[in-house]
From TrEMBL:
Coiled coil: none annotated. Residues 21-329 form the Tryptophan synthase beta chain-like PALP domain. Gene3D superfamilies: 3.40.50.1100. It comes from the Archaea. This is Threonine synthase. Pyridoxal 5'-phosphate binds at residues 85, 189-193, 328. Its EC number is 4.2.3.1. The keyword Isomerase does not apply. It comes from Halomicrobium zhouii.
Amino acid sequence: DDFEGEGVWRYNAALPFEEGVTLPEGHTPLHRVPRLEDDVGVSALRIKHEGMNPTGSFKDRGMTVGVRVAQELGVGRLACASTGNTSAALAAYGARADLETLVLLPAGKVAAGKVAQASLHGARILEVDGNFDQCLDIVQDLASRGEAYLLNSLNPFRLEGQKTIGLEFMEQFFADYETYPDRIVLPVGNAGNTAALYKCFRELRKAGAIEEGDVPKITGVQAEGSAPMVEAVQEGNDEVRRWDEVETIATAIRIGNPVNAPKALPGIRETGGTAVAVSDEEITSAQRDLAEEGVGVEPASAASVAGLRKLREQGVVDSDENVVCLTTGHLLKDPDAAAKAGVDPEPVPNDTDAVLDHLAGN
Ligand code: F0G
């Protein structure tokens, strides 16, 4: 075929369609962060910054495929529950496809940038007096009653698109190092992305594109106040216990019932990976570390770097490892968290001499 896709669609051989509803998405940078690499103490550290997608998160890779499927099916209404990024992506791709969009958000727990996106792209926004998991329960009910087409990561076509994160960073890393990364570290919420990466690596193996030993260890990071997957991995459980009370500054991953756990847990185990929980302070500190190298991410994304640092300190990650950290969302998604983590503006008089005095510390 003569279709030359870009971004996600460059990998259409691994996708259910040749083309999708596109803005376009994918083709994100694999940043070098030499100071952080040194400080964390690994052989190589690269940051796959998914915040550089059209709506500022990795969710776009899933939506370009998922909304295409919805078009194909001729559904009347698209819907999702969201901690924010999925709703922003669905609103944009739904608008692109000229389809009605409904998003259910946990009231008061979604970062400002994300609500603004859903709002401007014209989604109908329902603020639920409950947490994300409860929003997802409702939207699943709506879908099963035929009221909406579900575009959460329970929708397998979303994960097909998100597989391309793995295809891209494996290619990018190999181009620079002539080897594949030993480990991929990512934030975990509903565990959809973890499941997507696992599927990606399985398919690469099956196609003979990589060897068994080339598969990166899938390493998940959650916030301490919201860590049911970490609990299951560390206790060796096959089932994940639903946490009813969850809290973290990383609102994107404020999730107590990771619905994709059955697809994600085997990925962590079989690749020799692990899972670790980090505190809000560790997350904020990692957000600053990345920002100091010019890479602006939202708190949930910084969890990956915080988790790597912790595992390195614990000796779980070796100093000779090559690591990719996935940063899933852009700094501007959560301007309040960024402003809190960063330096405060200094009020000065409207006068050059006074400004110079101020700078001189007088
Ligand atoms: N990082 C960010 C920035 C996210 O928005 C999410 C999920 C994750 C990580 C976790 O990914 O769920 O595949 O394990 N956000 C969803 C949302 C839940 O509604 O935007 P996951």
